[in-house]
Amino acid sequence: MIQGVVPEGSTPPPHPLPPHPALTAYYAGAAERVGFVRRLFDVTAGDYDGINQIFSFGTARRHRARMLREIGLGPGKMVLDVATGTGMLAAAALSLVGPLGSVTALDLSAGMLRVAGRHRGLRLVQGSMEALPFANAQFELLTMGYALRHAASLGGAFAEFARVLRPGGQVLLLEIGRPGSRLAHLLAGAYLGRVVPLLSRLAGSGRHAETLMRYYWDTIETCVSPETILTALLAAGFQNARCTTEFGLLKTYRATRP
Ligand SMILES: C[S@@+](CC[C@H](N)C(=O)[O-])C[C@H]1O[C@@H](n2cnc3c(N)ncnc32)[C@H](O)[C@@H]1O
What we know:
single chain; about 260 residues; alpha/beta; Rossmann fold; eight-stranded mixed beta sheet; 9 helices
């Protein structure tokens, strides 16, 4: 496990800081990006869990649940899962907070929220991470799994995360990042960038599932560095921002609202 901490007081990145440049192979420019992402997740919602379980070798659910346990999530907590998708992370949180806690699950895509609706007990909300439809200081833990690369503005999203968290509240962001070593990068590119899109096309809903997974790898390839993400968290007012890495590419960002 690798630990990366950016010293507090380091220079903040430029606001609003998109996590990657516009990917014009998929959409014309930055203005079309949100619409493209929403449509892509709408049409692939039914395939998402199956594809995830296959390419993560069946570890997708277990990894999310472990990360929640490691951050100490327990009974009675108020959780917001941003970009919940099919609710995989939110459902794991629900089983830990029990009947005295609550889990609110927000997503941009109505298609994804429809699938998330099969997890009874989640409070589903359609909305955008850059303009959260909640009052200040509502939640004790904010989670987001594998969606940081889809933010239109990291600065805008992190400022919203700080706003809706109570003082002392924590943020937990799960991500995939570019592996550091050349060989690991080559192998990850071959697997995630070529094999997985092809398998997804065969196992999922054809070309949409393939596009989803090609886009997935292209956003990983072009994403800003973990140091930039940590600096953006600090710039949004978080403290103790840190990143751990497992297996070279599984990144976990944690930070606390003062
Ligand atoms: C890769 S899925 C992750 C789903 C889930 N968090 C998980 O752990 O499996 C990314 C999700 O982010 C959502 N999303 C993308 N941009 C968003 C935004 N600006 N605000 C809220 N949700 C967004 C998509 O609709 C999609 O459901």
